[in-house]
Structures are given as structure tokens and as C-alpha cells.
Design brief:
heterodimer; A: alpha+beta; 3 domains; 5-stranded antiparallel β-sheet; B: alpha+beta; Nucleotidyltransferase, domain 5; 14 strands; 40% helix; globular
Amino acid sequence: MTPSIEYYCPCLAASPHPPPPHLPSSTYSFHPLHNLFFCEECDAVRCNRCVMVEVSGYYCPNCLFEVPSASVRAEKNRCARNCFHCPNCRNTLTVVPSDPPDDGDARMSPIVSSTLGEPPFFLYCNHCRWDSAEVGITFEKPTGLAAQLQKFEDSAPESLEFERLKEHFEPFLRASSSSSSALHSAAAHHVHTNPITAAASSALARDIPGVGKYNPLSRSRAGRDKHAHKNDIPDYKSRVEVASAGINAGGGEADVDFMCRLETMSEVAALEQRWVSSWVASLHSSDLKPLRIPLQSKKSKRCPSCRHILIKPEQKAQSVRYKIKLVAANYLPAISVSLPHAQAAVEMMKRSTALNKSAAATTVDEHGASAGALLAGKTYSFHLAFTNPLYDPIQVRLKKAQMMQAPGADGDKTRRPPFQVNLPSSPFPVAAFAEAWEYEDDEEVMFGLEEDEGDLDGMGRQQRDGRSKTRTLGVVEKRANVTVVGGEVILTKEARGRVKFNMLVSYTYRSDDPDGAEENVTGTPSRSHASSKAPELKNFSFYTVVDLGLIVPREESRIDPDI
Amino acid sequence: MDTAPATPRRQTGYDAAPTTTPQTTRVTTSHVIQSSPHYQTTRRHSLYGTEDRVIIDPGSRLWKVGFSGEGKPRDVFYAGGESGTSVWTLNRAPGLLEREEEDRLLEARLQTSLRFVFHNSLMTDPKSRKVILVEHPLLPLHIKETIARILFDNLQVPSISFASSHLLSLLAAGRITGLVLDCGHLESTALPIFSSRPLFPQLRTTPLAGMRLSSHLRALLLLFGTYIPPLTSLSAAANIPAATRSMRVPEEVLTDAVIEEIKTRCCFVGEPLDVSDAHIMSPSGDDSTELDLPPSDPAMSESEFSRVSADMESNFSSQHAASSGFSVVSHSQVPNPDRRPGETHLQALSRMYTRHSTATDLHMRVDPPASQQTGTGRGTLVIPGWIRERAAEVLFEGGDVDESSMAEVILDSLLKVPVDLRKALASTILVVGGTPMLPGFIPRLHAELVRAISTSPASASSRPPSRRERPRPAPYDRYAPLCPLLPYFTILNNPSPPPPISSVSSNAGKAPAFTPATMSWVGGSLAGALKTGGVEVAREKWDEADVQSDDDAMETAPETMRSPKNILPDWTRSPLPAGAPPAPRPTPVQIPISTETEVGA
């Protein structure tokens, strides 16, 4: 419900202009600023949908072990040490020893057993009390558990059956590929000349003895046909047939019987717990096996067009730093949206609840709900706070993207747009970013320069509100590297849906600041920064979508608080 | 046109047949590259230093992904996010603008899923991995193209192979000949395959599948389920019995996730009800005269019911609002004056099923609807046992021309197959897909197959002798030509096969015990391990086509840049493929496929 703003990345669309925000597909093109990257080479915003991702290292999220990429493949992207998930609740399992043998008379010193514990060891879930002894998994040693389980995995029925299938088809494929050169040259020719039709014909893209000789139209060649069948592939004998495996599982009679007598749903394993297994498995949730924890990867990302690295994490799993980090938040001004009337309502609610907690609670609730909402047929002002991350002051110019006609043009005849947005049209300055300590030093100077000094504390809010009504458009507040500008939105009476509009933000940053924005540059400590840069003017613009919230239709607005 | 595809066939048939020389000379140079994918792939692999291919089995809801050569997928996930919404459906928007919007949504969702596959599930570099795409034969072209575009442009995979899901499933069962029924979420498709050649013109499909089962289940629960809301306060627990609090199931309780959970954890498929048994015990009242089993009841079929129920639901909710204290614990036996004609039938149906079902009622904890969030904790949904057992009846109830049952779709496909293939195919039926994971599904399907073929001859043989004086023409039976095949019908992956009828050596239950749902993925993995699988489209080829179409599109509007590219293989584009067995008739059989194949779109 709080108003939000998201930034546009043009990777999904062919045009540089953003899609109209009322389309559901447009949400995929807008991203929060902290998810975006910025390529210096291309001078463009990049998002997680378009960057090229490379894995720079694997690690286990539980034990933070960095897994060499060579063993990742063999270990199937899962931790091969002691890390396991509970099959029921996905909690991390702990290794616990068995209870010491209860001899009764000869109690050995308990200290010895507690340090190492008694074998067999098993896995235990601290959350749901599942333990691996229930499914018959115990360990002789408390270390290297996955390695101890590896032999079970290697001899899993599906991989054995898979190998057998491979052996079954391999000689047949070899034979057909060698014979195809001599026998089916003409067919091969056809495959070559017309790959599309060949594609249609088969997925195996090769000739099989038997099919070439087979022709259902000519009954006279029935004898030949039979002969062809004899040359055909021999019947495959399964290692484990589904009929024999299905005695206990696989949807056979036993399963039907079990389902029929089911008492609680939790006896049956959930789909998510079963769907990865390709071999018929028991439906019972009591038969689930512990899961090795999947590895995570550290990813470095590249620009899709120039291949420059945008982000590169440090190799160590414990580290959360980056070697290279070109994030958009360092290049584009951060914008935050707020509705002053909603904030005022929230504050009033707080104040009144503090005064008389019990009595006014319900009325305030009601008031707060309606006061924060956008009522159809009214005009609201909103504030956009621009925060400059650059060491140079910038000039920002806002423009509403010409997309508001789109809903009307989209089919609903020429319906009037449900709302109209007015933005400040003249460019406004945002001061340069400086380190925090510099602000602390120059605090007095900074705020001395600010015109809206008194507004920062809560006392002056009403006063400010009163003043902002007269000048809703334009700069409302300036402090440090933040400039707040006001805009207004006029809702029509029949307005519905969300107030969402595209806004083009273009900003110019000039290193030497000869004329514009004098008053805030004079005292800025980053002056030295600015002058050290090359004296050239750069311009960058990007699209955003501003979402002010849901419009409350007029009639319902009065009924709503009652419910 | 006729002769061109026929010549190679003749040549292969008679080895010594006079061949036209230009063809053979061209062949010797070309076939090394083309007809031996084995050579090709190994060379490529060494180039990239990777031997594993990525196998993607994209469904409308569930995706299975993994590496070739492994026995099970690495990851399975809902492509539409946690809520499990379909990425695509059988429908397309009618208007041009809506369709564009739909395409954009589809592309965004597919991109999310495909990037997730490489970056999160498999954590591998897409630029060095070839991809085998397990492709449903009726996967709409625009979806296939979108997938290919994302894989090539956004992820830059070196190549994509397209392999038919039905064929791959058959490979996983160790066969190359058979009739494969894939019962997924959107539709069920039967496709005969002979010697690894899919006989696409003989493909049959029906929209009775997982999605229909879900909507039917929801409709049944709305009518016959019971909801017990949470207690309004903890102190009231003692005085109010559960029975008085129970009410009809509010619609909001039955979210997609709840339905999915009920379907996957509670439902199973019971044995078919015996005809005579049902007749004796048939419920008293208006429909005692009906000899028919409810599954094939003409009055109001179950599938019809679930279709209608969408608009009935609003009725019910308003009705429920009017009488909120109304209890439906006793299976809503209370006669309702404004009841629809179909409803009495449904009541009878439920009574009969209740009588025959031994399945236990289940209690499920569900989140109360948002409008009733007053209580403490979660509400309880009571699922009658017969719903658990009989919800899947909707899949086996035939009679509709457009929506044939599971058995009918197999038999229809068999009817289209050349006569001398029928026996081989009927004896190697393979059932794959997510919906057959329901316990009891495959044995039931076998029973239905047998019943569909054998009922009509039985009635024909028993009745005429008794009333000889009135010689009636034998009722038309579509499946009469299949009757002689009756003893041969076997489902390869039947977990509890019936005892063989005759001395015929049966294949039933001889398939390896892979689950039906993962069969096509396993087949894809197998094809990848065998260095084969599908027609391969390399990225260079795609880029070439891309440049060409870009050039074409320069003058025209930018939207046409995304026009279909003809380099993706697709069987629907060439009605008479040269490599496939010739069609039985000279004219290509036009298949009445459902709305899914967007050939012209």
C-alpha cells in the first residue's frame, strides 16, 4: 500500500520506451533500484533479467565449505559433508549419538560418552523430532556422513536401471549408424536436403533397420516385413519391473489400499517431497530420506552487450564483499515517493493513541484507514525525494512519459484517463554526495543554507503542510544531497485501480559548475571533488514507474472502515 | 510431389534398385555431417569440453530439469511460481493487443524459469551446455519459439535439440515401438510410435487431464465437502460441537494450492464399479430406471457438471449467504427447492458412490477465508472418502466427441493406425505424465480399455438369443474392429497387471519402475547419454536466421521482427514428412487437434 517507485530496464522490450504501467507484463520490466546494475562502458542500466551470469564459486550454505567445481558435478550440486535437510520440515539436521548402553549396574563415566558419543550415530531434526533411525539410516562415525551414504546413492535402482538401458540401446545405435551409411544413403540424403521435414519425422534423427523396409501399403512384402522385425532391437528386460516394484509402491493395489484407509493427510508425503525421485517410491511420508543440502553459488555478472564484469564477489564463502561492484544505486539518483497526507494521518493516529489509548482507538483506526487512502475525485500532492549518489551535483528534470492515453487507446474506446499527474517542469538541483563525516562537520553551514530548516522536526509539520499546499509543484525541501520535490495527482470521480504512471527522469551532471544551482554549491564540501573531474557535461535519462497506491472508489470509502 | 518422397523408400527397400546417380553422389559428401549425429555431437563436445547436456522438460506448470546421463532430474519446480499457476494454457486471447500482451507475459515468465534453471537449479554456465528440450508434440509453436529465443539470445546456449516427449518416454521404458499416453495438466495425448518414428497424424488428444480433474475436484468439494471454521474463541471450545459449526465449503478456502494438495495427497482411483452390482444397489428415486452406470450417464455427465459448476458456484455462495446456519455434514441430503435438475442426479451419484466407497473421510487444516478471519487458528475441511476415490471418474467417463476419455483416446488412436501395427501397439501401451501418478490410475485405465472393447460384443451376444423375435440391428460400435485385439491389450508400466488372459506372452508391468511423471525426462537423459536425441539447432543457425528476418523486417513494422522462424523443427509445418512412414492414404490426414496447435497463428 505504501507508494513505491521502480526503475525501468529496457531488456525485455524492443523499444527504449517503457510499456504502459497498467499492463500486467510491465511489472517484469521494472525493478527496484537495488536490484539493478550499471554498465559504464555502455552507459546503460542492466537488470537481473539481461545480465550474463557466471558461477564463480560453489559453497555449502550450511557449513560454508567452498566446493571445488570439479567435485560439484559428482556430488550433484549438494553438500557432500555432514549437512542434511530434514525431509519433513527442511530444517537442518544434527548428528546425535545413540543413548549410552543402559547396563544398569556398571555405569561408565558419562564424560567419555558425551565427548564422542556412542555409535551408531543418526541424524536428528530439532524442529520436528524426525530422526534417521526411523528410516534405517545410522552411521558408524559422526563425520563424513554423505560419503557413508554415497554407496547407497551409487547403487540407487534408477541409476542401475539407467545404465542398463544405456547398454541396451548402445549396440543398436552403433549398428544403425554404421549401416545407415551404406543402406540408407538415399534417406540420409533426404535428411540433408530438408532438415525440417526430417525433424518432423523422428526425434532420433537416424535410421533404424526395419523402418526403411517397412511399408504398410504393399501387402506383398509382408514376409519381408517379418524379417525386418527379426532384425529389430531385442526386447528390453528390465532390471526391476514395475510390476514387481509395484507390490509396495508405484500406484498399484497396495497403494490404493493404503490411500483407501488413510487416516490423516500427513501420512502421505507431499508432492514436493516426492517429485524429484524418478523411481517408484513409497507414498508414506515415514519413508522419506534425509536430503543433502543443495549448494549455493557465488555469481559474477557481466553486461550482455559489452561483456564487462558488472559484479564479482570475493571468492571466500564467508565474505560478503565484492571485488567489482557496478550497481545502479551508485550512478542513478535514488528516488523515494511519499504521500504527505498519508504520513500526516499516520502521525495523527499515533499522537491520538498516545493521548487516549482505549477510547479513541477504533475511531482513529477508521480515520487512519480512510485518511491514508486515495479517494476518487480528489487531488493529492505527493513528494519525490531524490538522493544523489554522485560526487558532483546534478540537475534533474522530470517528465511524465506520454503513456497515459494508452488505456484509452487500448480498446476501451476513448475513455478519459482515470487520473492526471502534474510534475514540476523546471529542472532542479540535487547537491553532491559527500561522506557522512563531512556533513557532521558542516552541519550548521548546511542547514543554514537550507530554507526549510524548521521542517525537519515534527513540530513544524503542520506549518509545512500548510505551506506546501500553496506550492505543491516544485522543490519542497533541500538538505544535504537530498532534494524533495512535490507533484500532484488529480483523480477523476470514476477513477479505479492503482495510480501508476511512468516518469522519465533525466539528469545532467556537470563537473565544473559555472552557473546553475549556485546557492547549494557554494557551501558544499564536495567542491574539490567536482573540480578535480574532467570538465565535461553528461546527460543520462531513465524511466521509472511510480505507484502511488490503490484508488478507493467514492461510495465504498464510507463503508470500508466499518468492515 | 508423390514421387519425390517415395523414391528413397524404394531404394532402401531393394538394395539393388536403380538409383539416380546425382542423389547418391550428393549423399556421400553430405551424410557424414547429417546422418550421423553421433559423430557430430562427439566432435562438438570435445570442442566445448562438456559431455553433459542439459535436459529440460517444460510443462505448463511443472518443469523437470537435470543433466543427461543421470537417472533422475536435479530439480523439479513450479514454473509459474510457488502458487503453481500455469505458464500457458490451452486458450489464446482473441484480440491482437491482448495476444501481444499475453506473449509478453509468456516471455517474461519463461525467461524467469529458464534463467532459474541454469543459474539456480543447475548452477551451470549456459554458454557451454547443449540443451535437449523435451517437447510435447502439441506444444504451441509460439511457445516453442519463445523458449528457443530466450535460450539462444538471452542465455546463449550453443544448441537446442528438440525431442518428442512421447518417444523419450518410450526409450525410458526400453522400447522403440509402442503407444504412449501422456496425461499431463492441460491435456492427454496418445501417440503411436513405431520403431522410434512417432506417427504424428495418428495422434489423438483430449482436454481431460490434470486441470479438469482439479476443477472437478473443486466442484465436488463445494457441493459435498464440509468446512468447520475455527473457533471464535478458545473458551468456547467445549460447548459447541463441531457438527453445528460445520457449513458448506466457502469458495475462498479452496485455493489452487489446497486443491493441488488434495489431489496429490488424498486422491486415488478406485476400481470401476460393477454394472450388475450398481444396478442392484442403485439408489432409489428418480434414476432407478437408468441402467447406465453413472460414469456414462447421459442425463448430466460429470465433466459437464464440473464445467457448469463454475457458474453454479456463484449461485451456491449466494444461497449459502442466505442460510448461513445450514449444515451439510450429512452430505447435503436436505432437499433444496431451487435445486437444479442436474443436482438431484449428482445427489444420487454421491449416494451411490458413498455406498460403494470404503475410503475414509479426511480432515485437512486449511486457512479460513479472509472475510472470516475472526477465529482462532485454522479451519478444517472434511473431504468425503468417496470424493477421494471417485474424483478421477471424470477422466474415465467417455461419450463426448470432443472430450474422449483416457481409454477412448487410446482406442481412437489405435483405430487410425494401420491395421498390421495395431497388435504391436496395443500390446505395448505406456502411460506417462503427472496425472497417472494417482494411485490406481493405470490399473483402472486397463480395466476401462477392456470394458470399452468388450461391453458391446457382450451385449450383442447375450441379448439377441433371448429376444429372437425382434432382430435389432447391432448398435453401432466404434471399437468393434479392435475387439479381436482384446487379449493383447497391455500397459507396459502397469504396477499391478491383471493375470494374462490367454497364453499370449504379456508385456504388462515389464517396464522399468520409473515413475510415469519422470519417464520423459529420464528418456531425455538417456538420449543425451547416448549422444543422440532430436534435431539439433545450433546457435549459429539461429543467429543467421535472426539476421535474415531482421533484414526482412527492417522495412516493415518492428512487431514483425518476432515473426515465426522456420528453422525450428516442427512436424505440423510439413504435413507429409519425407522421413516418416507414408500415410495410409495419399492425402495427408488432417488431424482435428484441439485449440492448442497454433499452426496458422
